[in-house]
Amino acid sequence: xxxxxxxxxxxxxxxxxxxxxxxxxxxxxxxxxxxxxxxxxxxxxxxxxxxxxxxxxxxxxxxxxxxxxxxxxxxxxxxxxxxxxxxxxxxxxxxxxxxxxxxxxxxxxxxxxxxxxxxxxxxxxxxxxxxxxxxxxxxxxxxxxxxxxxxxxxxxxxxxxxxxxxxxxxxxxxxxxxxxxxxxxxxxxxxxxxxxxxxxxxxxxxxxxxxxxxxxxxxxxxxxxxxxxxxxxxxxxxxxxxxxxxxxxxxxxxxxxxxxx
Length: 261
Description:
Elements: E1 3-7, H1 12-23, E2 27-32, H2 35-49, E3 53-57, H3 65-75, E4 82-85, H4 100-127, E5 131-136, H5 149-168, E6 174-179, H6 188-192, H7 207-221, E7 225-226, H8 230-241, H9 245-259
Parallel strand pairs: 1-2, 1-4, 2-3, 4-5, 5-6, 6-7
């Protein structure tokens, strides 16, 4: 049986990915900050799908966390066939008013941890000419985001890095996919400080499962960039046609009422 390592697995997309992979017969390594949520998910998945689930509680914004996760799988003799870099966080507010430590934490989690885990697990995948990496980027990666400047920039990095790596790895048996969802009710908005934003109003709770399934299927097909719905496809296409100032102004208008108060 193959094994998938999923970060940020305690809720949102990560939790949905865990159920999807388990249903498809994968053993799992799940990691996040909440032991209670991970253990609850482990119990459910093992009972429901009959696969093995390994829990490793870790805050991936800590610089040593990726190496500790890698060491854990090495010590357990676990071969990671699929790496899902899902963990991420946002923060609404003007950069000049922000807490610098929180911005650095965002970079460490959204960018540094993803790069480190990819670099740690990729060599073994290449050695056996088989493996998949699914990085959760965002539609935010296609444009600058005034009011969430570091978050948007971090997702632009994930998108660019994943797309470039997918080309480097052609013909190796290893693929990289960047999933670029739009606003979805996953708990992200509340943690980022804009739960009541118009971006998230009216978003059905079940969409996280749909987006995760789309990302999973795109990963299985080896797609480089996965845009899960017409809104995301349209937005990604539109930003290529208009001056960069247009999406920048639109995003600022949507978020500024929350930022400026």
